[in-house]
Write a structure and sequence with these properties.
339 residues; 56% helix
């Protein structure tokens, strides 16, 4: 049987390590980029030139961590040297711009000279961390592939060994021996000293006959139940009248409220008061007439209507007041006294 040694698989870098390193690297690049752009001036071209160096360093770090290392050593060396050159240029540009910016904002010479080193140092440490984490990730991936290949090779070797081994013939199983029982002699009946006499056989004719059972009375048939009578239902068809329905007549209006006997004199007095106001040239309205008699406005309008009818009847009859009413009607406009 082929034995394959176990391969120790290194652990992958944790997500927390990646987050911490990228956070530090991003903070350093952001600080350097902001200082370069702030110190470059107001021109757009000057800002773009000042911000290019940190951006180039960021792109180089991303390529170094994401892209696998080349197989040839000299290519790897060229890649590392180029990245170091980009990092040196970015550090120098960031140092000069940040120092000049610190001096412009009132920092002393020592602080302005050492403050950019904190940003450049943070970027260098974060870049080394990114390279280390990417190398650990590549080693873990290579170890996982090697472990998978080892397991596959071990399984293939085991299957090949099982297929090459001879298969032993099956062992015949003898049938189970069945024991033959020995014959047991039957016991002979022993003769008894006093054998009982056989019982006398009765004569079949002397045996009394068995009485026949009495017949069970059969209950009479039940009386037939009369079926319910079927009553024809009345027809539900709609009867259409031969003639058209008569047109609805208008409902007569309700009778007016009867005037109490004691109110007739009051109504006559109200009509007389309105006629007097009409003769005076200032006819009362329905509301004023109702207020004078402590009645409603509608009551006053009704009395005015009655007074007008009386005047019209007098005009038609040609009474003594015809000329007077003509003059009064000419002076009073149409609808006077009614609101």
């Amino acid at each position: 049987m082929v034995h394959v040694e176990k391969v120790d698989v290194p652990e992958r870098p944790s997500k927390g390590a990646w987050v911490s390193v990228w956070l530090a690297f991003g903070a350093g690049i952001a600080a350097s980029l902001a200082a370069n752009i702030a110190h470059a001036g107001a021109g757009g071209v000057a800002r773009a030139v000042a911000g290019w160096a940190p951006l180039a360093l960021l792109l180089c770090s991303e390529v170094m961590t994401r892209v696998p290392a080349p197989r040839h050593k000299w290519l790897r060396r060229v890649q590392v040297v180029s990245t170091v050159i980009v990092a040196g240029v970015a550090a120098l540009a960031s140092y000069r711009h940040m120092k000049g910016l610190a001096l412009e904002y009132g920092e002393d010479g020592l602080t302005a000279s050492t403050l950019p080193l904190s940003v450049d140092g943070l970027v260098v440490v974060a870049s080394i961390g990114l390279v280390v984490l990417s190398q650990q990730r590549r080693e873990a991936e290579a170890a996982e592939r090697a472990s998978a290949l080892a397991r596959a090779a071990e399984q293939e070797a085991f299957l090949a060994a099982v297929a090459a081994a001879p298969v032993p013939p099956p062992v015949p199983v003898p049938p189970a021996a069945v024991p033959v029982p020995e014959p047991v002699p039957m016991p002979l009946p022993e003769p008894s000293a006093a054998e009982p006499e056989p019982a006398p056989v009765q004569d079949p004719e002397a045996v009394p006959p068995v009485p026949e059972p009495e017949p069970v009375p059969v209950p009479p048939d039940p009386e037939p139940v009369p079926k319910p009578a079927r009553v024809p239902l009345p027809s539900l068809e709609v009867v259409v009248p031969p003639e058209p329905w008569p047109a609805r007549r208008p409902v007569p209006p309700p009778d007016p409220d009867p005037v109490p006997p004691d109110g007739a004199d009051e109504n006559a007095a109200a009509r007389k008061v309105w006629r007097d106001s009409l003769a005076a040239g200032e006819p009362l309205t329905g509301k004023a007439l109702g207020d004078r008699f402590k009645r409603s406005e509608r009551w006053g309008r009704n009395r005015i209507t009655e007074a007008r009818k009386e005047l019209q009847a007098e005009q038609d009859a040609g009474g003594d007041v015809a000329g007077e009413t003509d003059q009064q009607d000419a002076r009073v406009p149409v609808g006077a006294g009614v609101e």
